[in-house]
Amino acid sequence: xxxxxxxxxxxxxxxxxxxxxxxxxxxxxxxxxxxxxxxxxxxxxxxxxxxxxxxxxxxxxxxxxxxxxxxxxxxxxxxxxxxxxxxxxxxxxxxxxxxxxxxxxxxxxxxxxxxxxxxxxxxxxxxxxxxxxxxxxxxxxxxxxxxxxxxxxxxxxxxxxxxxxxxxxxxxxxxxxxxxxxxxxxxxxxxxxxxxxxxxxxxxxxxxxxxxxxxxxxxxxxxxxxxxxxxxxxxxxxxxxxxxxxxxxxxxxxxxxxxxxxxxxxxxxxxxxxxxxxxxxxxxxxxxxxxxxxxxxxxxxxxxxxxxxxxxxxxxxxxxxxxxxxxxxxxxxxxxxxxxxxxxxxxxxxxxxxxxxxxxxxxxxxxxxxxxxxxxxxxxxxxxxxxxxxxxxxxxxxxxxxxxxxxxxxxxxxxxxxxxxxxxxxxxxxxxxxxxxxxxxxxxxxxxxxxxxxxxxxxxxxxxxxxxxxxxxxxxxxxxxxxxxxxxxxxxxxxxxxxxxxxxxxxxxxxxxxxxxxxxxxxxxxxxxxxxxxxxxxxxxxxxxxxxxxxxxxxxxxxxxxxxxxxxxxxxxxxxxxxxxxxxxxxxxxxxxxxxxxxxxxxxxxxxxxxxxxxxxxxxxxxxxxxxxxxxxxxxxxxxxxxxxxxxxxxxxxxxxxxxxxxxxxxxxxxxxxxxxxxxxxxxxxxxxxxxxxxxxxxxxxxxxxxxxxxxxxxxxxxxxxxxxxxxxxxxxxxxxxxxxxxxxxxxxxxxxxxxxxxx
Length: 760
Known about the structure:
By secondary structure, the chain is of the alpha+beta class. GO terms for molecular function: carbohydrate binding; peptide-N4-(N-acetyl-beta-glucosaminyl)asparagine amidase activity.
């Protein structure tokens, strides 16, 4: 080695060591980089995440949120609002799905009951927001509110001014609620039935609130007006408890809830275990650092803030919907049949979004969590006769597809799901694939009779978004086929699902080289506008959905007459102007607007159908284009700020895309056991797996402009493939990416280096 190279290595090493020293000296942990406000500057017209600051534990049953929106508004917290109406227990997965089982607490001075009267001005400068602790100064009352959650309980501390009318308003919300004050126990109990659907008639969220001081005043209220007595059942019931306070005096309240009973709510209160707010805050911080710290990265400060903010979003949903009974066993209220039953249950996720990479992230980094989720999915089948597709908390009529098949098969094929469940889950997949829920057509397969007979869902039979359904059903059939092979099901059965997995070909229009709706008589829909959103597709157009052949990209390449035409079509998505046809909706939906304003042509990363498309260059011999566009998307479309996303975050999916992509790989086809190589954003990363193994990722020359992989080394050996195997990664691997500013057009260009395709 000559002297110049020695000096380069020496000073380069100093720079790396210096960076590590700075990060270490900062004393920051993974949770310190999280901004729960990322994505909260959103509206109906434009989503920059459509998130709210979820003050919660990972996958916790209950979240808490400072409520700026009016009761029932799906936008519970908006960054551009400056009045807080209450501190709400929430279970909302999305503003479009809205909330259920919500109630709130709000400290005030004087007689202020309804949400408009009691709302107080606040400033973000006097607000502390972390996943495990929230604090805000309520200016109208000179009150500071602090909040720390556990999975099913929470601790509040209210610091009051000197007052003879310091009060806490408890709002059980409308649509049927109950409240009772128990003065001898410094306690308020109640329930709320408020929901947005997906629940049986006996649904209730029971809550208990215990104060550390005896109130000098207490009253119930009805429909925003004071009422006599200590108990109230009404459309909209609530309570007020009052205290005589000196300046700086605190009132503490512990809160828990249950979907089962008041007794179970009291049991859930024991999660706090007598710990002070400071102890709970410290323990919550440790819990978050344990979960987030499973992936330890080194990158620029902004990248670390973005990464851990995204990872935080990736471990919120699906949420626990089970509780722990007196004997320490998991039990749950079933939102499917209204009974209290043994076992795990999780909810509040839409598989149309999250099958793509949120669940693969769980399978890689948090498999024990997904093992319980899979047990819960089998419970859903036992209780309703179907796998869920969008659950909140029960079946919801939202989105398309039968992507529970992907979620189940990926977990089984990666060995995450307990083997004892495999056969029953396979039965559930087959049943759900060949029927439709009688009351919730988004569950099961709407149009399955046409699909099974014709090989597609026709455009002209009154079933909306039919082409999207066909494409997703075909991939879902491939998922079923993979499990059928594993279970050695009868060959005729295996052949059936293998054959159906080719149904995507039935919608390919060779004239346009795009997917197109098809009528029952075999003719294509006409006229055809590939820029028309909706209609035959779901929240996208043909340019977005034509790539939804996750399991057979090679087959799609063949339909498009080879790799050059295929990559040219991929290029066109970015080079086309952001034109659109919104006539199906009659107005510009927010997903369209988000594509239009991002200056990436017709690429619509703000919605899920196209998020894997960037990685498809890896299947056609031009991996450097994947590397370029992955880095461009991470750099341009994600920021750790209130308008930090480029569309709906959607229960962790859009966040998990960033997490995977920043690490350098992405699960294009869940169920294949492969991750497709991209371009890592991090300087270094270590993924600590639950089996004790580690995936160490190192990059060299990974400067801001060095988008391109020059060489990839795995366990010390040169690696040419454009994919990693899950079975290899979980054994522990050392990955080194040597990056550069110019494409390496010889690496990963052979057919043998391409990721899995069914046709290969």
